[in-house]
Amino acid sequence: MKPFYRFARTVIYPFFLIFQPVKVIGKENIPNQDAFILCSNHTSMTDPFFTIAIFARQIYFMAKAELFKIGIFRAVLNAVGTFAVDRGKGDMSAINQAQNLIKEGKILGIYPEGTRHVEGPPHKAKSGIAYIAMDTKADILPMSIYREGKYNLFKKTTIRIGKLIKYDDLVSEDASVRANMKNIVDTVTKEITNLWEMKH
């Protein structure tokens, strides 16, 4: 775990205990070891902080390249192990970095919708998650973040962590690459949405 990430976690966790009523369901589904891809809906800029507070192991988030153009954001993102991806451009550098993290047994964090959706149910996952999953052959852990309306301090947030989806259950040797990719996108979208629909 990176030193700054460890420091951030020690600061964030007490903050949420005091100022943010968070209900976490399904922590027993988090693997204690081995690599996997964490996929969640994206509701607020605070989402990574909620996740850091919950997970004992470090998560290496993939974030849109635009955030790295802001000096202070770039410094903080680099310090906690986040790396940039150029959305919609087939960013092979980001995919290679994701592959390396998985090979090293780490957790890769992705918001497969591609952008934030402040209110309402999760949107369909983008095809990027299928590319990354097929390139890394990693299992996927679905998670949902639910709150009523926009994020505010003291507003209740419920985080549900689903069962680990095995990569071998997502792809078939008899299916085409396109069909396997569609199944990954559809399955991830469905699992996150099902968790979100349980609400509080």
Order of SSEs: HEEHEHEHEHEEH
Which CATH architecture would you pick? Answer: 3-Layer(aba) Sandwich
Largest sheet: 7 strands, mixed
For the biggest β-sheet, the strand order reads: 1-7-6-2-5-3-4
| Count of domain modules | 1
Backbone shape:
globular
> For this structure, what is the CATH homologous superfamily?
Glycerol-3-phosphate (1)-acyltransferase
Could you tell me the CATH topology label.
Glycerol-3-phosphate (1)-acyltransferase
Attribute tags:
Glycerol-3-phosphate (1)-acyltransferase, 6 helices, 7-stranded mixed sheet, 200 residues, 38% helix, alpha/beta, single chain
Give a short synopsis of this structure:
This protein is an alpha/beta fold. Helices cover 38% and strands 17% of the residues. The protein contains six helices and seven strands.
